[in-house]
Amino acid sequence: MCVAASVALTGPAWYERDQPTGLARLDLTEEAMGSSFSLVLFGPDRPGLESAAAAAIAEAHRLDRLLSNYLADSEWSAMNREAASRPVRVTPELFALLSACLDYSRMSDGAFDITVGPLMKVWGFYKGEGSLPQRKQVEAALNRVGYRHVHLDPGLRTVRFARPGMDLDPGGIGKGYAVDRMVAVLKQAGVRSALVSASGSSIYGLGAPPDAPEGWPITISAPRDPSAVATHVVLKNMSLSTSGSYEKFFWAEGRAYSHIIDPRTGYPGQGTSAVSVLAPRTVDSEAWTKPFFINGRAWASAHKPAGFRVFFCEERPQATCGWLP
Description:
By secondary structure, the protein is an alpha+beta fold. It has a domain of 96 residues: Orthogonal Bundle (T-fold). 30% of the residues lie in helices and 30% in strands. It contains 8 helices and 17 strands. The strands form 4 sheets. Strands 2-3-4-8-9-12-15-16-17 form a 9-stranded antiparallel sheet, with helices on one face. The protein has a 3-stranded antiparallel sheet with strand order 1-10-11, with no helix packed on it. The longest helix has 22 residues. The N terminus is likely disordered.
């Protein structure tokens, strides 16, 4: 499955005057946080759009310096290095995000877990395309995984790991958080119509484009055939995130292994092809795709938060997709 907007989301910045409305349009794509962030903006003047887009991209780079587990000097990396040996005081922003992550873990019965880093590494998905580990390697990694081993002190604003070798991974939430922050920057700059996308898998539609007052039209493609349409959605002050077994996987011993790891078992989730979640905030839609994917359709139907919509594709001889009730 892939998610694609019906408006251009790639290429260098360009501008045009939208004749029917007199609005200028800006398209911009830039790499940050290991993702491709794309912006489509409409507004009354080109300089205003340029300034707003630059501020939004700067926010993405700021968050890369905060949340990256690839950059050695990021606050996230420093926390990973030191929190097993002592309580580490972190910024209010990082503390709030970590607190939210632990809330997602509790609400998802542990299927969402930012401590999954050791498992991502043993499965080869950290800076790689994946490889089949030995069972003893998975078991050893599991000893260093578990959100209950992350202790937060709200009074001191510190993080402490209860076990050595723990490694928090922001990959399940970072893009969604960045999209929300970029949208907030655009709003502050006066932008009222924008589409912000992180690698096509986490998207937020702010307002509506001038030719579609109902909102930004988005196509969700079929899991095994990107040219086939599974369903259409419209985003108006709403986010859409998608996780699928097609995104990053490898073949071994005659079967496919996805990068979506169940942190409780140490093995990739099975039975689901893809999940798309619509929610008011992108950080929520991105986070919830993982437990829905791992726990399956019945669990997702029973636990989806109020106000969310979930499009679920199960793995069968032919993928079966549909909206959850």
